[in-house]
Amino acid sequence: MSKSQTYVLIAFTLFFSVGKIIAQSSTSVSEKLVGLYWSPKKDAKINIYKKGNFYYGKSVWVARPRKDIKNPEKSLQSRDVLGIELLSGFTYEDGIYTNGTIYDPETGNTYKCKMTLEGNTLRVRGYIGISLFGRTEIFERIK
Q: Which of 67, 71, 100, 127 could be a cystine partner for 76, CB 3.0 to 4.6 Å?
């Protein structure tokens, strides 16, 4: 093998190794969201998980078991709030989990939503139209 072929092989190997490392670190950063969180009022525990390329959150414990009576869809009003998928369809982009929705069983409304993770604090912003018209709630990771 000539010197120039050796240099090309080394450069090729380095290029793909660095690309793989960057891709793995990006994945691990985005997956830091996965885990168990308290709802803002600490009356429910939400398990956030990844399914495919999207993030979801489901209630896994509620302080006060009840039915989803505020749901605008009549057929869903008899389901338990426990087990409902409250967060749906989030993707990770530049430190923000975006393009998702949040369902509020207290009102029966579903809102567009984006989230940011700061240590053990998850800032969840639900909004209508643009995020300027919304509200941010704080979810705390359960250790």
A: 71
